[in-house]
């Protein structure tokens, strides 16, 4: 039996396309006969369900309140993807208590056999972000060419290194013009992490700017499903295949 794989996908700042990447990677993996769960761990401003055009009846608040089991709050997306939805606009869940975190961690054991549990964290370096990166097998950082994204990503890696002990991070460059720009920006990050942090950052892939991405988001469908031949889709598939390898 293959080991269950828990992947945290995070970012230093918002607006870098993290949740779009999560939904498309999940769609690709599930299309390739993998059992996928997505935990929307942006508990106060979650929108994974929105990406798939789903309106959940219950969410993580109902589970933490003890009124529903984890299975009761899950909703099904395309290809059998199971989504654990967050709340929207409930600030009290932006920093969970230790008891609440432990309850979510224990819920992982209640989930039926899966191949990948993808944790879509909030942006930034809150205690929730640190915790979910800590309990995941791997950490992925989404970065764009914007200077603020680069500096915030460095800060995120630094905090995660110091608070979780993790030394290896996978980087996905998003919204770049081409591979050349992706590598240029990655090397900027590498130059400072190599100098100041005891970490290894791995260039996992890049996704080019694509006019079809916002169209797919408005349709509440994965880009891979509605625009299978577009450049960003091909890049996402390449990243998905690396996860499958």
Give descriptors for this structure.
8-stranded mixed beta sheet; 20% strand; alpha/beta; 11 helices; Rossmann fold; 8 strands
Compose a concise summary of this entry.
With 245 residues, this protein is of the alpha/beta class. The protein has eleven helices and eight strands.
Question: What is the secondary structure topology, with strand pairs?
Answer:
Blueprint: E1 5-11, H1 18-31, E2 36-41, H2 48-51, H3 60-64, H4 70-73, E3 75-76, E4 82-84, H5 98-110, E5 116-123, H6 127-135, E6 138-143, H7 147-164, E7 168-176, H8 179-196, E8 200-208, H9 212-219, H10 223-226, H11 231-244
Describe what you observe in this structure:
This protein is of the alpha/beta class and 245 residues long. It has a domain at 5-140 and 212-244: P-loop containing nucleotide triphosphate hydrolases (Rossmann fold, 3-Layer(aba) Sandwich), CATH 3.40.50.300. It contains eleven helices and eight strands. It has an eight-stranded mixed β-sheet with strand order 3-4-2-5-1-6-7-8, with helices on both faces.
CATH topology of the domain at 5-140 and 212-244: Rossmann fold
In the CATH hierarchy, what is the architecture of the domain at 5-140 and 212-244 at level 2?
3-Layer(aba) Sandwich
Identify the overall geometry.
globular
Major sheet summary line: 8 strands, mixed
Structure class: alpha/beta
Output the CATH class name of the domain at 5-140 and 212-244: Alpha Beta
Assembly state: single chain
Overall number of strands: 8
Summed up, the helix count is: 11
How are strands sequenced across the largest beta sheet?
3-4-2-5-1-6-7-8
SSE succession: EHEHHHEEHEHEHEHEHHH
Q: What is the average per-residue confidence, as pLDDT, rounded to a whole number?
A: 95
